[in-house]
Amino acid sequence: MLVTREKAQAKALSQTLERYGAIPIELPLIRIGRAKQVDQHLLHEWHTFDWIIFTSQNGVKYFFELIGEINPPTWPKVAAVGEKTAKALQKRNVVVDLIPNDFVAESLAETLQPLLSTDTRVLLVKGNLARDTLREQLSNMADVTDWVVYETTYNEEAKPQLIHFLQQRMIDAITFTSSSTVHSFAQAIAGENVDLSFVTIACIGPITKQTALDLGISVHVCPHTYTIDAMIEELNQYFTRGE
């Protein structure tokens, strides 16, 4: 099974696959790193906001890399889009005030709405390729500021190996954990002689699935709970049923 997520995060997914008896092949299709240009004003003012919203574990990681040892006496209220993001914050002793029931931006905006007003200042910690959905929805409810703390780029070096795996039919399934991995995959196979009819495609959630469908990639597995464990469990059931 092909693991397409960024190198530093691929291990956890691979270990879960191994527990189910699968053989993971790690081929990161994206690279993630600290943003090259960061708003220095926000570096000193982030703690003055009413709310800080984290939409990914990467956002948590690079936010703390940026702020370093800065530890204000009081934190703003904190929202996390999902359990893994919340746990990454809690490991750093940050109290998470809000997690939506569904781990997507739309659910987070809906859950936050009763807690916001037009003069509420919200800091949205994100990556350069993050969807605009959350910002657009929150901007109708509060004063929202974006802070791009990390950048996602396509790993073009992975293309030759990916094409080889597909042409030799060495892969039974491909796992996608973000829209950016899907975009990178589609970019890599564009114009190449590859057949995906023998490959099972698994997406972590509805946004990633819709990205794949929009790019003409069929999706066979997408769990109701948008986590890696749920995706692998459903992928296992898919193969067990022999579909």
UniProtKB/TrEMBL annotation:
One of its GO terms (molecular function) is uroporphyrinogen-III synthase activity. Residues 12-233 form the Tetrapyrrole biosynthesis uroporphyrinogen III synthase domain. The keyword Lyase applies. Its EC number is 4.2.1.75. Keywords: Lyase, Porphyrin biosynthesis. SUPFAM superfamilies: HemD-like. Signal peptide: none annotated. GO terms for biological process: protoporphyrinogen IX biosynthetic process; uroporphyrinogen III biosynthetic process. It catalyses: hydroxymethylbilane = uroporphyrinogen III + H2O. Pathway: Porphyrin-containing compound metabolism; protoporphyrin-IX biosynthesis; coproporphyrinogen-III from 5-aminolevulinate: step 3/4. InterPro entries: 4pyrrol_syn_uPrphyn_synt_sf, 4pyrrol_synth_uPrphyn_synth, UROS/Hem4. It holds the Pfam family HEM4. Catalyzes cyclization of the linear tetrapyrrole, hydroxymethylbilane, to the macrocyclic uroporphyrinogen III. Belongs to the uroporphyrinogen-III synthase family. This is Uroporphyrinogen-III synthase.
